[in-house]
Specification:
alpha/beta; Rossmann fold; 46% helix
């Protein structure tokens, strides 16, 4: 007998990096389900604009300042959300950045920033919310990883490493919760290339279409209603990943070359990515994707 989908109406959801992209569309999808939504973001002005937009129909959506690399900031975010909206039911570790370029040319600042946000940011969220979930005997942790956490792709070496970490830590947390007999749920979301500014300038991969932020958001909602751990978006990426896992290494690498997956990122258009790369590397929300190359002055940090 199929599981009866859970009702999400009235639940409290907190989303990191929720002001734009996948985070924003996930917030929108949560609002449609009747959830109370907290958007945490480094860019508070944009988070507030997003909250205002999504609350237009009378929904309860609020914006909060959040730096996921600072555990004290994450704790303050969680505390504020629970004081305003009530105990958090869903915590979505969504914030992340991706630098595209050759590993041998990547500077330490870029490397460390990806690790700070993609690794420490996810750890900080999990460390702050899971004790509360376990104490209450309920809750759902959503960690947004990537298909880059299932394989290695030239051009995003550090990013791949950070997303492998997210997949591995999510699996291990799930195992520990099971060992404790806790009903707390964990979901690991692994999108392929998604049509957001993070994917600006990337080459297409044959046989795997680009997903939309709405696709990812709906997949997250589905995993909350009928809990499951592995969420790969789009479905074609799940099929491709399943096929790859059945092949020996040479076969996997040969198939990756055949569909262009080995060139999709390393041959990205640097002009199309220039604005995003600067903003992501420095986590400065005032720089927009797709603009002419920009530089930060001393006062922009």
């Amino acid at each position: 007998m199929a599981k009866q989908p859970r009702v999400l109406v009235g639940q409290v959801a907190a989303i990191t990096g929720g002001a734009r992209g996948i985070g924003k569309e996930t917030a929108r999808a949560f609002v449609r389900e009747g959830m109370r939504v907290a958007i945490g973001d480094l860019d508070l002005d944009l988070a507030q604009a997003t909250a205002t937009e999504l609350a237009g129909g009378g929904a309860n959506v609020r914006a909060y300042p959040l730096d996921v690399t600072d555990r004290a900031s994450v704790r303050a975010f969680v505390d504020a959300v629970e004081a305003d909206l009530g105990p958090i039911d869903v915590f979505d570790n969504n914030a992340g950045i991706m630098h595209v370029g050759r590993f041998l040319e990547e500077d330490d600042e870029t490397t460390n920033r990806q690790i700070d946000i993609n690794v420490h940011g996810v750890l900080n969220g999990a460390k702050e919310i899971l004790p509360r979930f376990v104490d209450r005997g309920r809750g759902h942790l959503v960690n947004v990883a990537s298909m880059a956490g299932k394989g290695g792709f030239p051009g995003v070496v550090t990013y791949c490493g950070t997303k492998h970490f997210v997949v591995g830590m999510s699996e291990a947390i799930r195992g520990e919760l099971h060992y404790l007999g806790s009903p707390v749920e964990v979901t690991c979301v692994m999108p392929a290339i998604v049509q957001t500014e993070l994917a600006a300038g990337l080459k297409p991969t044959r046989g795997v279409k680009h997903a939309t932020p709405q696709d990812v958001a709906q997949a997250i909602v589905d995993a909350l209603k009928v809990p499951r751990f592995d969420v790969i978006v789009p479905r074609s990426a799940a099929v491709a990943n399943g096929a790859l896992q059945l092949l020996p290494r040479r076969g996997r690498e040969g198939l990756a070359r055949a569909i262009g997956a080995d060139r999709a990122l390393i041959e990205a258009d640097p002009t199309a990515r220039s604005g995003y790369e600067v903003r992501a590397a420095h986590s400065d929300p005032r720089l927009d994707a797709g603009t002419a190359p920009a530089s930060l002055t001393a006062g922009d940090e």
